[in-house]
Specification:
- The structure holds two protein chains of two kinds.
- Chain A is mostly beta strands.
- Chain A is 13% helix and 46% strand.
- Chain A has five helices and 26 strands.
- In chain A, the strands form four sheets. Chain A has a 14-stranded antiparallel β-barrel. Chain A has a five-stranded antiparallel β-sheet with strand order 4-3-2-1-5, covered by helices on one side.
- The longest helix of chain A is centred in the first third of the chain and has 18 residues.
- The two termini of chain A are 39 Å apart.
- Chain B is elongated.
- Chain B is mainly beta.
- Chain B has two domains: 128 residues, no CATH class; 246 residues, Beta Barrel (Porin).
- Classes of the chains: A mainly beta, B mainly beta.
- At the A-B interface, strand 5, helix 5, strand 14, strand 15 and strand 17 of A face helix 2, helix 4, strand 11, strand 13 and strand 14 of B.
Chain lengths: 424, 384
């Protein structure tokens, strides 16, 4: 918690990086070599004119640095000029000599209409602690993209997901499972087939299952046809999906039952989720056993997911006999998700990726999922995803011979789904 | 110094020049900076540049759209920065000045667009010289150009350039404005998507039915979720509602998609926007029925007053078997407007016949004609 707070504070602090700071100070380095030489030459001339025996520690080839300061009447004024030599030593230009220099030249220097660059706080001696450089914060999008789609042209993961970037704006996507409501990989007998953009995904839900290792009594979420939308921006995101066994009034029963006993079918009829997210830098690039430098993104939100339980009557009236459905608070879950991706390398892939997700049902049902991905070749990674469900959901399943109600406890179980990704 | 002043005047004079600022999309790419820290860095850099150089340049306002234009050829350097709004115009900073303003590292960082949140844009490539009315319509169709909007059909509080909180009553695009849908929506709105939950709407009709003897039923609400997007002139949405088994007469599933086309109107000062698409709604009655069909909508906005608002906005919309909607909105000023909506229900739905096929049949559920009143209050937060 302390670390998160510290990172939050440092991100806020980093907004002022390199620009006018809280003390009204502004520093920059002159990157226009010709102009820098012109200034330093003029300074050396003025210095030797004032004192022919002066020690010339400053050379024309040094890097010229300018420091401005906000005055009491809120105007920026030249505070000092420094020269950084090749060995990194900073030497201050003598103020009395600078005053004697051509005023138009100094005015041109102050006006900053040439090539220049910001200096970091540490570089100008304002050590302010563990400051995260705001320019490194951009990596937040790497972790977003790593779990949203791909930076490569093609990312084909067998069997979990596939993204083909048709052009920079659009990608064709296939995703197995319903990660948004906690059913990753083989724990849901569904495939999302659709189009992905920078901001949203629109997809059809197809009832198809994939192979994975699962518990003996596992009953994965069954699949049906449907559709969905997913959204994601740096701060907000979520999803809406819809599936129905009987979209046209018992005329089109289509499902994929993950359990051999097809008399017990549980599918997600509706779902909606919404979350807030934030991203922080994490890890280090030190050698040894450590978390590689990357970005950590946290999602906090809510999920609404309704489950229908029933059995299809395929032989007679082609009906799905809905026996029970989740209602009220049992439809709601709290969502906590963490995504980590190491910084993308020059080959545009993240060496390590990992995610952890908790879906906490308001009435006991819940699950935890974990995934890990390691790039083992420039074009290939090995992935593993696991999920475990607890408590399950009790559905009414009719009455027995004595007229007593029967319940079916749907417990999805646990799953381990290994996969291989190929990047092109 | 005189030279500098002349150059500055020349530069400023080109800022709002219009068509000559149109760029060739084959040679340049353009995007809007959405990532807040980078927006702040650019805002600071421009203010700082004005401070040190003394140039008469506009500052970047918190809700300005900041567009980066990059050359596709050569060293793919930054070609321009544009900031401002569609209605009020953009300040254009040319290639040479971008390096003076941003410095090397910030320039490189901003050019690395795939590493931060951005949205591609075609604003610098737009052919028409001046289309503020179209932009006014587009801006107010989905997102907002003000910090706060209060109206019966939409409450929106924009807490940053990245998003806001939205509450919408009814679903005008599906032909059921205000009380007519039975539900309302609450959630998050951004420039490109809205997302949230559906809840029951207010149980009052802000208007009246025209025919005294007509039926006066209303659809029920429920609990559910919705999501919608507006991306490159394509709009899409999906929503659902759930209820207990005994509740009937509600839209349990709805989806809608349309393309948006816009054109300035020359014979009357203003702009016309046309949306063409389709709506599909599934309703739970005693049985499952469907509604919707082809969607067409036309919005006309009169010439902007002071480049800020249209005095008159006229809309005509037809949604398949559901309804015909006609609305007129009159804006007194930038902040306050009123509107009158005339809604005609077709009273037709697709029902399952004996042969197992869906056929369009007459129903007797909705009033034939409804008049609905609305108002619109918008203002900006002076502290933002």
């Amino acid at each position: 918690m302390k670390k998160i707070f510290l990172l939050f504070i440092t991100v806020l602090l980093s907004f002022s990086f390199g620009q006018i700071d809280d003390n009204g100070r502004l520093d920059w380095a002159v990157r226009d070599r010709e102009f820098s030489r012109e200034i330093l030459r003029a300074y050396i001339d003025a210095l030797t004119e004032a004192d022919p025996m002066a020690d010339l520690t400053i050379q024309e080839t040094d890097e010229l640095r300018v420091t401005m300061q906000l005055s009491d009447d809120n105007k920026l004024e030249l505070k000092q000029l420094m020269a950084k030599n090749r060995s990194g030593q900073l030497n201050k230009l003598i103020e009395s000599v600078v005053i004697k220099m051509d005023s138009e030249l100094i005015e041109k220097l102050i006006n900053r209409q040439y090539k220049w660059d910001y200096l970091s706080d540490l570089d100008v001696g304002n050590y302010t602690g563990e400051i995260v450089n705001v320019f490194e914060e951009r990596n937040h999008k790497q972790v977003r993209d790593a779990f949203w789609w791909t930076h490569r042209r093609v990312n084909m993961s067998v069997p979990a997901e596939t993204y083909v970037r048709i052009n920079p704006k659009w990608a064709f996507s296939i995703e197995f499972g319903r990660e948004d409501i906690g059913f990753i990989g083989a724990s849901s007998q569904t495939m999302n087939l659709g189009l992905t953009t920078e901001i949203f995904k629109s997809f059809l839900i197809i009832p198809v299952g994939i192979v994975g290792v699962k518990s003996e009594e596992a009953h994965p979420l069954d699949g049906s046809y449907g559709a969905g939308l997913k959204f994601d921006s740096p701060q907000f995101g979520g999803s809406v999906t819809f599936q129905d066994m009987m979209f046209r009034n018992n005329q089109d029963i289509n499902f994929y039952n993950g359990k051999t006993d097809s008399s017990k079918v549980v599918y997600n009829s509706y779902s909606g989720s919404i979350y807030y997210s934030f991203t922080s830098r994490i890890g280090s690039d030190d050698k040894g056993f450590r978390l590689p430098l990357g970005s950590l993104r946290i999602h906090l939100g809510f999920v609404f997911a309704q489950f229908h339980y029933g059995n299809p009557s395929l032989e007679s009236d082609q009906a799905f006999n809905l026996k029970d459905q989740t209602e009220g608070l049992s439809n709601f879950q709290g969502l906590i998700r963490a995504e980590y991706a190491s910084d993308m390398n020059e080959n545009m892939y993240n060496d390590w990726k990992s995610s952890f997700q908790l879906n906490l049902g308001f009435q006991g049902f819940g699950n935890v999922q974990f995934s890990l991905s390691k790039t083992i070749l420039k074009w290939m990674s090995f992935n593993l995803s696991t999920s475990y469900f607890w408590n399950g959901i009790n559905f009414e399943d009719g009455v027995d011979e004595l007229g007593e109600p029967i319940e079916y406890n749907w417990n999805p179980g646990w799953y381990v789904t290994p996969s291989i990704s190929i990047y092109l | 110094m005189k030279k500098l002043i002349i150059l500055t005047i020349l530069f400023i004079s080109t800022v709002f020049a219009g068509a000559e600022n149109q760029l060739d999309s084959r040679r340049y790419r353009a995007w809007i900076v959405e990532y807040q820290p980078y927006r702040l860095l650019i805002e600071n850099a421009v203010s700082e540049y004005i401070e040190v150089s003394g140039e008469n340049l506009e500052v970047v306002n918190p809700f300005d759209t900041i567009i980066i234009v990059q050359t596709r050829t050569g060293n793919q350097s930054m070609y321009q920065i544009r900031y401002g709004s569609n209605n009020l115009g953009y300040t254009i900073v040319d290639k040479k000045q971008t390096t003076w303003i941003l410095g090397e590292t910030l320039t490189e960082t901003i050019l690395d667009k795939d590493s931060y949140y951005h949205l591609d844009t075609r604003i610098p490539f737009a052919k028409s010289k001046n289309r503020p009315e179209l932009d006014y319509l587009a801006e107010n169709s989905f997102w907002t150009s003000t910090d706060f909007q209060l109206s019966p059909n939409r409450f929106l509080y924009r807490f940053s350039n990245q998003g806001g909180i939205v509450y919408e009553w009814g679903n005008e695009y599906s032909g059921r404005p205000l009380s007519e849908a039975g539900y309302s929506r609450i959630g998050i709105s951004t420039r490109v998507f809205k997302l949230g939950f559906q809840i029951p709407g207010l149980g009052i009709r802000p208007g009246f039915t025209i025919d005294d003897d007509s039926i006066d039923n209303n659809l029920n609400g429920g609990l559910g979720a919705f999501g919608s997007f507006w991306y490159n002139n394509v709009y899409g949405e999906m929503s659902f509602l759930t209820n207990d088994e005994n509740t009937k007469n509600y839209v349990d599933f709805s989806t809608l998609a349309f393309f948006n086309f816009g054109t300035p109107v020359t014979f009357i000062d203003g702009a016309l926007q046309i949306k063409i698409g389709a709506v599909l709604e599934r309703l739970i009655r005693d049985d499952i029925v469907f509604a919707g069909g082809p969607f067409i909508r036309m919005d006309f906005a009169s010439k902007l007053v002071d480049n800020k608002f249209s005095r008159l906005v006229f809309s005509l919309q037809n949604v398949g078997s559901t309804s015909l909607l006609n609305s007129i909105k009159f804006n007194f000023n930038e902040s306050v407007g009123i509107s009158i909506n005339y809604l005609h229900y077709y009273n037709k739905e697709y029902k399952l016949d004996e042969n197992g096929n869906y056929k369009l049949e007459d129903i007797n559920f909705y009033p034939d004609n409804v008049i609905l009143f609305s108002f619109d209050i918008k203002f900006n937060n002076p502290n933002m």
